[in-house]
Amino acid sequence: MSESLRPLARPRLYEQVAARLREYVADQGLRAGDRIPPERELADRLQVSRTSVRQAIVALEVQGLIEVRHGGGNYLLRDHLEPEPMENLLARKRRLPEILEARDAAETKLASLAAERRTAADLAAIDAALAAMRAAIERGELGVDEDERFHGAVIAAARSPLLADFMTHLSREIAESRRESLRQPGRPANSLRQHEKVADAIRTGDPTAAATAMHHHVQSVGDVKLLNWTPEH
Amino acid sequence: MSESLRPLARPRLYEQVAARLREYVADQGLRAGDRIPPERELADRLQVSRTSVRQAIVALEVQGLIEVRHGGGNYLLRDHLEPEPMENLLARKRRLPEILEARDAAETKLASLAAERRTAADLAAIDAALAAMRAAIERGELGVDEDERFHGAVIAAARSPLLADFMTHLSREIAESRRESLRQPGRPANSLRQHEKVADAIRTGDPTAAATAMHHHVQSVGDVKLLNWTPEH
DNA sequence: GTCTCCAAATTGGTTGGACCAGTGGACCTC
DNA sequence: GAGGTCCACTGGTCCAACCAATTTGGAGAC
Questions:
Q1: pLDDT digits (tens, 9 = 90+) for B37-63
Q2: Cα Rg for chain A, rounded, in angstroms?
Q3: Other CB atoms within 10 Å distance of the CB of residue A208
Q4: How many CB pairs under 8 A join A and B?
Q5: Neighboring chain B residues of A12 at a CB cutoff of 8 Å
Q6: What is the pTM assigned to this prediction?
Q7: Which stretches of B47-186 are DSSP H helices?
């Protein structure tokens, strides 16, 4: 398990440079056709080597965000340096397995701990979250927030500051995949049933059953149909 | 116009390195999870600096094709290094304006030259191409090959080896956009009508009209609905 | 003999400096 | 003023070195 708890994405310098460039373009209100500062100046101002700046440039160029003119400077191709929505989706899809792996490791353990340590108050919080999600589904909503609330209640019941902290780090990535998962037909109701199984095991005080139920739940979250479509040729 | 006749893409070293890596992976039959040679070895074998190899690595990493493990090597994430079909589409979409610009410049001039220089044989070839496309559309086909045949006949009639050569360089890029354009509803018939206008002007010997008709045709090719879709948030 | 642990070799990450190659504008000539 | 020349600017590539994470293999403990 500890293998799965490694940092999800170690920071690469060129990515930070690219991020800074994104900010810069936004702050300065630059638009398509505008020129960005020369590589040497960027390297100097960001206090990194020109090599790192150039890697960031390559990354942005590959994403079709800037145009490089030998001897003439680097120019914006769009009004910002954010990847296209489609690219974002693709990137998230690629990261999904890794996120799921980490989430599976952590939440499975958290569920079993919760089964051992839960107090009456914990159970009440979990049940409240379940009820909220049930109500949301009946209103025809996806229950995104309520889903998150349930998982938060389980984490609280486990009383593992370290794992809880790790889940906090994951939370942003999880939030993005959660919405896409719940958007699939019948998924919210399905998710609720799985939550109930987890809750039952925690109530019973059965760590193994709780871990198993949570494992199944996390696995099913990764089953997202979106973007299996391929343009015909 | 001469501005539009600049090279479409000057070769950047890191792109060549990436291409070589693609070949290597294909030749060696490497698959997802396999490790590719160390950067230093690649630089040595390809006779380029490690800097260029690293830029290629960054480009491939951004496209989600390889995983970089600090100290551990670079690993394939897929069974090949070809960009995803979706990425290909996006890249082509980005290049479309540039291609269209060049194509507009060249084919407009070619059409007016054809109007001045066409022989009876040229007209016959052009008419034959028109008839072939008409037949293809009646068969319910897209008429991709016939479309290309028409443009080829016009180019031949213009008798400009230089421009013809330039069009040959463009042909691969044009072929890709042509299919996507013709796939749109009603587009083949629309395209045929535009071809006929060009042919008429060439037959009449009216260079200006031929250029105008061709210009309109090329512009309409660029109007591709595909990929204006954005995932909702 | 097997296991553990540590140090060296391997491999990616980053740096600074150097030089080459297009671009574009300042400047000079006519 | 028109034209051409030259040079500063900017991207393109290379090199040598060193840092940081991982892997590996052997020394030592059991």
A1: 999 999 999 999 999 999 999 999 999
A2: 22
A3: 11
A4: 57
A5: 68
A6: 0.72
A7: 50-62, 85-117, 120-138, 144-158, 161-182
Separation CA B23–CA B29 (nearest Å) = 10
pLDDT tens digits for range A32-78: 999 999 999 999 999 999 999 999 999 999 999 999 999 999 999 99
Structure tokens at A196: 């109930």
Q: Which residues of A85-124 are buried (b: 16+ CB within 10 A; e: fewer)?
A: ebbebbebbbbbeebbebbbbbbbbbbbbbbeebeeebbe
> How far off is chain A from B52, nearest CA to CA, in Å?
10
d(CA A102, CA B9): 42
Mean pLDDT by 10 residues, chain B (233 residues): 50 92 94 94 95 96 93 92 78 76 86 93 94 91 90 93 82 80 85 94 94 92 64 50
Nearest CB partner across the interface for B58, out of A14, A70, A231: A14
CB B141 within 8 A of CB B98: no
Helices A161-182, A144-158: axis angle to 10 degrees equals: 160
Distance, in angstroms, between A200 CA and closest chain B CA? 34
The angle, 0 to 180 degrees and rounded to 10, between the axes of the packed helices A187-204 and A144-158 is: 20
Per DSSP, the three-state class of A73 is strand
For the beta sheet containing B73-76, the strands, ordered from the edge strand earlier in sequence to the opposite edge, are B35-36, B73-76, B66-69
